[in-house]
């Protein structure tokens, strides 16, 4: 329409003889099959605001719903067809104030109902048997002494040591002990032992493997006493 008016205004005929354009409103023909009835169309003056039919006229959805019958109502079952009720729980037979003999319901009389369940109570902490070490005898001091290069073995070479030889080294100033088949000179370690000198002296001159693992199997004796190794424990023969 705009281009038509522009052409008319600029045409040479315009100045000579005015031509009055005629505007014909052609109403749109109704849809043939109704297929596009849900699409937006420009309608004439007689158009109303009625929404398009949904489901669309002649649509498969409308046709199928028209042909199908309404769903049958559910049938009410008679007594013989019903599922039997569940058995009565034993609690239902309980009389107020009358104790039940059933063992499953017996609560131990000693149980304190306000106490936390046994599964959540902590095991009592074991009392530590560590001793107060003299100043300058902590674990770091022992590590420094090992690094210092000081002779902690007291022997020139590694030896084969029988139990009888081991037994001779049972003094505080000359203490050897065997752990896992290795014999260590524990003399210098005595004042550094967190469990105390007295405890450690229990294994002086003998095999201490069992006592050691009973007390602190997690302690790495090979690392702690690596500078004190004197030999290996062998049998007497
Ligand atoms: C020469 C080998 C041994 C080494 C290197 C050694 C080392 C240690 C270490 C590092 C601890 C501290 C553990 C911790 O902080 O949890 C400790 C504690 C202790 N050790 Fe030894 N130990 C030795 C041998 C023994 C032996 C043979 C006994 C027993 C006769 C013993 C008895 C104890 C005790 C009672 C404690 C205190 C445990 C506690 O915390 O209650 N140790 N020892």
Structure in words:
The protein is an alpha/beta fold and 237 residues long. The chain has a domain at 139-233: Flavocytochrome B2, Chain A, domain 1 (Roll). Helix content is 22%, strand content 9%. The protein contains eight helices and six strands, in the order H-H-H-H-E-H-E-E-E-H-E-H-H-E. It has helices at residues 2-10, 13-16, 60-67, 139-147, 163-167, 197-201, 209-216, 221-224, and strands at 159-161, 170-171, 174-179, 182-185, 206-207, 229-233. The protein is elongated. The termini are far apart. It binds protoporphyrin IX containing FE.
Global structural class: alpha/beta
Order of helices and strands: HHHHEHEEEHEHHE
Uncertain segments: 34-42
* Helix proportion range: 10-25%
Name the CATH superfamily assignment of the domain at 139-233. Answer: Cytochrome b5-like heme/steroid binding domain
| Rg from alpha-carbon coordinates | 53 Å
Instruction: Profile the largest sheet.
Output: 6 strands, mixed
Give the CATH architecture of the domain at 139-233: Roll
Shape label: elongated
User: What ligand species are in this complex?
Assistant: protoporphyrin IX containing FE
In brief, what are we looking at here?
By secondary structure, the protein is of the alpha/beta class. It has helices at 2-10, 13-16, 60-67, 139-147, 163-167, 197-201, 209-216, 221-224; strands spanning 159-161, 170-171, 174-179, 182-185, 206-207, 229-233. The protein is built from 8 helices and 6 strands; from the N terminus they run ααααβαβββαβααβ.
